[in-house]
Design brief:
Layout: H1 22-34, E1 39-42, H2 63-75, E2 79-84, H3 87-96, E3 102-103, H4 109-121, H5 135-143, H6 152-165, H7 186-197, H8 201-215, E4 233-236, E5 253-258, E6 261-264, E7 275-276
Parallel strand pairs: 1-2, 2-3
Antiparallel strand pairs: 4-5, 5-6, 6-7
Helix pairs in contact: 1-2, 2-3, 3-4, 7-8
């Protein structure tokens, strides 16, 4: 919602809902309710996708617009996230009551303190979900330095380390589906966080599983191996805590289980229907 106000003319009409003012924000959320949407993603800050019209520090939504979207979405039991790179946009999102933040690139210590208080205040929700960098995005950024500031990836990594050290919760897996970040390459992001961001393999896996489920509001259904939860399990040939890049090798995937049913991997029936796992 609202990649940029329509007066910026960056050609996103039809792909997103452009709003001008709080009432248009409420109206847009109501449309999404009818479409069966569960999450509303907004763009409170800019990006480098259109360098002639905005950058990472451009504010694309007012606080009043953001607050109106949150109030309307929460009224309909929907959650709100936002593309927040600029520090001012991060603070506005926290004040407005966002459930999660995306990226958090230029977060400072004051914004981090606000996030910590929000996390305590809204104990059932996640106040910060950040996917600061992936392997594929890093390669693309390096090749596009004329459009993406060289320090962008570095700042995103710093923000991630700062959030985790402060006890914040981060998820993995964002902005996939683009040409430079295709679906099916998620494991590269986990390797990146260990080798380049500085997370331990266990911290990275926890962010990708337990915390990811919490972000989705499904922590009671999956994300950890516990009695009563769905058996969504990945069985791997090797020790991922010793070498997390094993997850990038599909030949090392013994079984991909969804709700207790083997859907892929070496144990899946070749050319046949998925089979239930042995209990």
């Amino acid at each position: 919602m609202d990649w940029n106000p329509d007066f910026r003319k960056i050609g996103m009409e039809g792909l997103v809902l452009l709003i001008n003012g709080p009432e248009e924000g409420r109206r847009a959320v109501r449309k999404l309710v009818k479409d069966g949407v569960e999450w509303v993603k907004t763009y409170p800050t800019g990006d480098a996708a259109a360098p002639d019209t905005n950058d990472h520090h451009t504010l694309c939504m007012t606080f009043d617009e953001m607050r109106a979207v949150v109030e309307e979405a929460h009224n309909h039991k929907m959650k709100v996230t936002g593309h927040c790179r600029a520090n001012a946009g991060i603070k506005n999102a926290l004040r407005a009551g966002y459930d999660t933040l995306e990226h958090g690139t230029f977060m400072d210590t004051e914004a981090l303190d606000n996030a910590a208080r929000a996390q305590i205040r809204r104990s059932c929700q996640l106040c910060n979900s950040s996917t600061p960098a992936s392997y594929a995005a890093r390669i693309w950024h390096a090749a596009k330095r004329d459009r993406w500031p060289p320090g962008n990836t570095r700042r995103r990594c710093e923000s991630a380390r700062m959030i985790l050290k402060a006890g914040g919760r981060l998820g993995m897996g964002g902005d996939y589906g683009f040409a430079w970040n295709p679906h099916g390459s998620y494991a590269k992001e986990l390797t990146f966080f260990v080798k380049h961001v500085g997370f331990s393999p266990l911290e990275t896996i926890r962010c990708a599983t337990k915390t990811g489920a919490e972000i989705m509001g499904q922590g009671d259904q999956f994300g950890t191996l516990e009695k009563g939860k769905l058996a969504d399990v990945l069985v791997v040939d090797g020790d991922v805590l010793a070498e997390i890049s094993i997850l990038e090798n599909r030949r090392r995937l013994i079984a991909v289980m969804q709700a207790g049913v083997i859907k892929a991997g070496q144990l899946a029936v070749c050319g046949g229907s998925p089979r239930p796992a042995v209990r």
